[in-house]
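Help needed: design a sequence for this.
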């Protein structure tokens, strides 16, 4: 083996390492979430081995794309970007709506912003926005490690994760929403 492939040339060793990382942040996750809709491999290209991601083509065949990355980056990529699989595997059991001061910007309107508690554990945030002819939504799963932080540090990390676009729920909105801390498992304090 070498520095680029310290676990050999069987991609399953790397998927297992990625799953260990994924379980740290999403304890209820399953290994198949990494490979259910995505395919990975290690392939010899010329004289060298390369990490490969496979993507489905319109005809059902797979096209391989080499990844010019090291082992750590390959494992990080395998472990991240599975929000869709996480969402399907862990249905929402309870929600908590948060209202933003800034709900409109550049023709787009923030329609929904809510925290979600999931049946198998964990929390996510659902954000939906749109204009007269388009719209979209996104779910952001909040890593378990964030909840080990004090409230102020949790807010800092959380806002880095979920603050896309010109309108969003800001720190003041979160701090002034009664009951949110309790919903997220923090103790409410009276200042």
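Sure. Designed sequence:
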């Amino acid at each position: 083996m070498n520095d680029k492939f310290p676990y050999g040339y069987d991609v399953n060793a790397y998927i297992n390492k990625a799953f260990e990382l994924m379980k740290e942040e999403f304890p209820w996750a399953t290994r198949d979430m990494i490979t259910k809709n995505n395919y990975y491999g290690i392939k010899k290209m010329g004289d060298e081995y390369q990490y490969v991601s496979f993507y489905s083509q319109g005809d059902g065949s797979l096209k391989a794309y080499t990844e010019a990355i090291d082992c750590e980056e390959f494992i990080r990529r395998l472990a991240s970007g599975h929000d869709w699989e996480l969402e399907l595997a862990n249905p929402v059991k309870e929600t908590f709506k948060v209202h933003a001061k800034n709900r409109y910007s550049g023709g787009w309107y923030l329609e929904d912003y809510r925290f979600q508690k999931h049946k198998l554990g964990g929390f996510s945030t659902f954000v939906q926005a749109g204009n007269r002819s388009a719209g979209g939504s996104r779910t952001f799963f909040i890593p378990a490690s964030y909840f080990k932080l004090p409230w102020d540090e949790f807010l800092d990390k959380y806002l880095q994760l979920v603050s896309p676009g010109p309108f969003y729920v800001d720190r003041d909105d979160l701090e002034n929403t009664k009951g949110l801390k309790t919903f997220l498992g923090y103790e409410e304090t009276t200042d």
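DSSP finds seven helices and eight strands in the chain.
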